Amino acid sequence: MSAAATPDALTRQHTQFHGRLVMVGFGSIGQGVLPLILRHIGGLPPARITVITAEEAGRAEAEACGVHFTVQPLTRENYRTVLDPLLGPGDFLLNLSVDVSSVALIEYAGERGALYLDTCIEPWPGGYTDPSIPPSLRSNYALRESALALRKTRPGGATAVITHGANPGLVSHFVKQALVNIAADLGLAPGALATREDWAALAARLNVKVIHIAERDTQTPDVPKAVGEFVNTWSVDGFVSEGSQPAELGWGTHEKALPADGHRHAFGCDSAIYLMRPGAGTRVRSWTPMEGHYHGFLITHGESISISDYLTHREGETVIYRPTVHYAYHPSDSAVLSVHEFAGRNWQLQENKRILMDDIVSGVDELGVLLAGHAKNAYWYGSQLSIDEARALVPHNSATSLQVTVAVLSGMVWAMEKIPTAASWSRMKWTTGAILKSACRISARWSARTRTGRRSISAASCFRKIWIRPTPGSSATCGCRTMSELLFKVEDRVATIALNRPQAMNALGGTMREALLAQLQAVATDRAVRCVVITGTGDAFCAGGDIASMATLQAEGDVATIEQRMKSGGGVVRLLRAMDKPVIAAVNGAAAGAGLNLALACDMRFAVPKAKFAASFVKIGLVPDWGGHYLLTRAVGTGRAMELMMSGDRFDAEEALRLGLVNRVFPAETFMDEVMARARAFANGPREAIVAIKQGVYLGATGTLDDTLAFEQRTQAGLFLGADAREGMKAFLEKRPARFGQDEE
């Protein structure tokens, strides 16, 4: 159906806002949304809007509107200093940037009492590509988990709307409307639809197995793409960043096997998987009404994870339904050529970049959702917006950008009105629709029958028959955190995580491994935490695996669950070593098996005199896991490690101190006071230097002397002119204690 633009739709103010607005980033989306903000949000004059961006692009457009424009890239070190004068209670932080941590800005906005919105969850530079961080922890899945973890730290705080552009964002509303439409066509009453459980139950009743975010962009420029040039209809850096990541997709309960290079995550809600290949190098087959069948890129996108999680239907704690969800993106032909050249250059970006805007001469961006597997086979619902329609309605927009900017605007209006209920999706959807309908045709179509007949589309067809063995650990139980298994607090920049199964000597049972990994992942991205302490409740640190649980799995022949538990444990060990903050094991009692290896994976270990240690796997006929072969051998040497592992003998704290397994032994009555005093000292020390020391020590333990010397030269030069080094030397000369990190207060 189509809707003509009316004068009211083009001028109507949807809300009033009397705070300040700070826009971080001002690329194609920032430039495109500014006219919409000025047109549709009342009470917000240009003088109260500030743009903070990393480059000069867009200055003329901002200044023509009377908006303050500042070129100042935000970094880990300066974002608080830059934003402090600009944001306070009741203001709005609109994050449209790349290479700026969304989690950091969400947390910061909450501290300042400011509203917040972004179109995707971004890490700091290197967060997608740092090879020292496991791929699972560099994923959109992990970024989403870390963002959602902030909800527990800010109950009742200022509203933060995350990932609300076109996709992710607008397409989630398309999915809901499509579910309602399918139910109506099948003669089913959808029910109340007031909660996410209601929506998940509806999707399960309809038997929707697969959801594609199906997008085909046909916009073409007057000047063709040149050799050595990356051309796109939106941010080149954003597209390259997400296209270079491992492909990610929501993983349905109907799927029987992983792709050959597919992996599950060892933490969080288990709604998605990732592939060990870039999204821009992974093709999937999909369909849109104007294009028909096409091959798109399986680009990693937040909505693939969030929609599959949102539509997960449970009975009690058991997952009984979840759809497979992924993005199937066919960008403009210029962008496809750019990706082809980019891949051929071994994923090294071209020298020149061009974002298509005024030079587009024709084309449509067809963006929607394709729901398949239900009784009607497949159904596409979405928008078909031409470049001519976009230009007639809003300046500085293409067909691609307008579908993003209207979603940004609607999310801002929703946040400003502070609508708190889960059922209020329809208000945001229709706020978006009131603008989007003026600019595009909303199309709702059943897909054409394919040559293979009316069979449901499955993810298997998208991966071109690369399936292998049954999925390891394919239990339907969700891996979400059970917080009673852990106790957590943050004081004086120190996070303390206590294993909390004292009745079982804190043995790792149930979902405890996944809970620990999820909590560590959240702490790893929390800039307010500068040191981590892991300990146990009761009289034990950790007795290792829960043998009673293991015996049950053994009787059932359930090797898959054992493998999944080992994978989660490996994730904990990797994260402890990769985390950019020191981690202390406060060994308050027995540390055996995996418990010993958990302590060894920490950067330092302090123990009470009564603590007992054992590499006890051999006692039950198993070999060490959680990295024990690596960790214990490097701690005590080959011969001693061999003896300890093959005998499984227990040894006390004094022997552990003699072997170098623990740093210090403190009296029981003052144990945690001593541990926390050292943790606070590390937390209040020069952060960057302490992080570099951790990296350097592990490099020195495994690398060559030349590697270490090169690291020291590179790191020292980087720290020398930093704020901590300046303060440290000044304090030394003034004969006073140094006050590190004052600029982060």
Brief account:
This protein is α/β, with parallel strands linked by helices and 745 residues long.
Largest sheet: 6 strands, parallel
Calculate Rg over CA atoms: 27 Å
Uncertain segments are 419-431, 448-483
Distance between the termini: 54 Å
Number of strands: 34
Instruction: Summarize the amount of helix as a percent range.
Output: 25-40%
Overall outline? globular
Q: In percent, how much strand structure appears in the residues?
A: 15-25%
Key terms:
alpha/beta; 6-stranded mixed sheet
How is this structure best described in words?
There is one protein chain. The protein is of the alpha/beta class and 745 residues long. It is 38% helix and 21% strand. The chain contains 26 helices and 34 strands. The chain has a six-stranded parallel β-sheet with strand order 5-4-2-6-7-8, sandwiched between helices. A six-stranded mixed β-sheet has the order 25-26-27-29-31-34, with helices on both faces. The protein has a five-stranded mixed β-sheet with strand order 19-9-22-23-24. The longest helix has 20 residues. The protein is globular. About 7% of the residues have low confidence.
